[in-house]
Amino acid sequence: NTVITVGALQSNHARLTAAAAAQMGLACELFLTRSVPRDDADYTGNGNRLLQDLFGARIHLLPGEADSLAEAEARADMLRSQGRRVCVFPSGGSSPLGCLGYAACALEILEQAGNLGLSFARIVVPNGSSGTHAGLAAGLAAAGRDPVLAQSYTVLAPEAEARATTLAKARDTLALIGGGLTLADDSIRVDGAHRGPGYGVPTEGMREAVRLMARTEGLLLDPVYSGKAFAGLLHDVRTGTYAWGETVLFVMTGG
């Protein structure tokens, strides 16, 4: 009857968890860290923070360096001692079970591409809590395709850390799928060159990417996730990573 999750102050996952809990009649508690160096009222009280309150979630604000998952687990133990039934979700919902959603997404992409006669040189996504990339890699491997077809641009952790986390989660997801499949160490491709100074901190490349997509396609990228990932893709296109005529799929994960 209670769900708890963690994330940054303006976490999309936390907001969606609160909305889903409200719809299902469940109590919701959010452990939110101040991961972005901003303390203005617009950032701390607007956007997703406003919506989290509107959905009725109980908010626990933590400093950026806090171990939010440990805090959430401690709270869950206390609530369980009071007779509550509690489920704790990690940041981004990026557990092996959560990653199955993007494993299914990989299968859907392959099916639709086949129906349309398309072949992708790369499937590109942002990498925050690593679940999107991990799920896609696991799904591709389960379908007999090379998981390196998926590539991510990290917006949260440094490149090496993001790659290691993604690989571990992809392997755990494959274990959940079954079939005895595994992933080699070089199966995960993560680019950290467009992360900038840190999570949620704007970069010039991100600003250009957001403006370009808005003014040429009428589509909105967000500044934290998809904007930085698309900036990375633009850089790779311009520097010759892809041959003329190759097709790249950019997965807009929201933000």
UniProtKB/TrEMBL annotation:
Pfam families (UniProt xref):
PALP (PF00291)
List the cofactors.
Answer: pyridoxal 5'-phosphate
Q: Give the enzyme's main class according to its UniProt record, as a single word.
A: lyase
Which residues does the Swiss-Prot or TrEMBL record annotate as the active site?
A: 11
InterPro entries named in the record: ACCD_DCysDesulf, TrpB-like_PALP, TrpB-like_PALP_sf
| Tryptophan synthase beta chain-like PALP domain mapped to chain residues | 5-254
Superkingdom field: Bacteria
- Lyase: is it a keyword of this entry? yes
Q: Any keyword Lyase?
A: yes
Could you tell me the keywords of this UniProt record? Lyase, Pyridoxal phosphate
Q: Which Gene Ontology MF annotations are present?
A: D-cysteine desulfhydrase activity
The enzyme's E.C. designation: 4.4.1.15
As for family, the record states:
Belongs to the ACC deaminase/D-cysteine desulfhydrase family.
UniProt protein name = D-cysteine desulfhydrase
